[in-house]
Automatic annotation (TrEMBL):
It comes from Tetracentron sinense (Spur-leaf). It comes from the Eukaryota. This is Uncharacterized protein. InterPro entries: Peptidase_S1_PA (IPR009003). SUPFAM superfamilies: Trypsin-like serine proteases (SSF50494).
Amino acid sequence: MLSRAGVPRHAIMKKFAGKEISQLEELILVLSKLSRGARVPLEYISYTDRHRSKSVLVTVDRHEWYAPPQIYTRDDNTGLWTARPALSPGSLLLSLDVNCDRKDLTLRTVASTTDEAGLIEHIHQNNDQELTDGVASLETNYDHVAEEPPSREESDVTTKRRRVEEDSFADGIVVADCCIPEPGEDPRTMEITGFRDDRRAAAANASTAERVIEPTLVMFEVHVPASCMLDGVHSQHFFGTGVIIYHSQSMGLVAVDKNTVAISASDVMLSFAAYPMEIPGEVVFLHPVHNFALVAYDPSGLGAAGASVVRAAKLLPEPALRRGDSVYLVGLSRSLQATSRKSIVTNPYAALNIGSADYPRYRATNMEVIELDTDFGSTFSGVLTDEQGRVQAIWASFSTQVSEIWW
């Protein structure tokens, strides 16, 4: 919970959820009143910088990845440590109710998942759209394909390239930037206003495909608990771009690659390009062979305004892409800015060959992928569309092991 928020080890808590914290009992009292999935501010100091307080936004764990907290007290007579529950059985934190119930979402997804998964499968197999450059950009941890030669004015290229470079991050660590607004200011209103201003400024330089597909793109932030790292997962933090394939008043579905959502036992947060809101998601489907997953979300978490602007992408499984076809690669930067590049399909039936890793882990097999005429780098993911913004393929990340060089 604290590591996800970027809180360093040995930090000293000063205030949590608006309450002063000076001893362990006060922290336990505050935690007992919080529900799963709640997002509360935390103020802390580090022993290396004791005179400067820092604030972050902490998301309370939504799943029981670990056992309930306990307090151990030493018995000096026996030399043993006696355990007792830290939280009372009736506390909200121990309740099974969460903001986005996995079982409810799964039940509502059954019918839709069957249809949508079939369509995605058709795109993956018939249109060969699990995408990569197929040569040198298959790397580990979080390797995407990016960067394409300029196809518009030089000024547009410079702007877009700057956005792509914003995607850079080290080791998948999230740096929390949670500023506390001044009294009397509505932070949501300020955020939405600034968000819309940025969108208007970027709209002038956006392609038609970019403008059409942007409301359907979602940025993923995935955290895998340490207790689940044994399931062939090579990192605890993943980021990537997904595309909404179904959106209604009761449920939404997002398709994403399995190098972003590797296993179902993970905490998934979704940030929408169309609306400045972050809500949790639940993994409802992981394809056993091909490199895609489906994540469900509750549209009510977006509010009426957010749910009205977010929409599902229009899929175009036919006709299949052919050599020489022009496509637009559209994705998101870490600042949720849509970026697009125009490219040419050089090989729509490239064989994907990912070698086995040193230890058991998932690898995509039995797939044909699409090659483009340029190398897009390693910090970009998204979708391939036509000029009208209809999705023809997923530009995905593949998980492979990078060979170590010994000198």
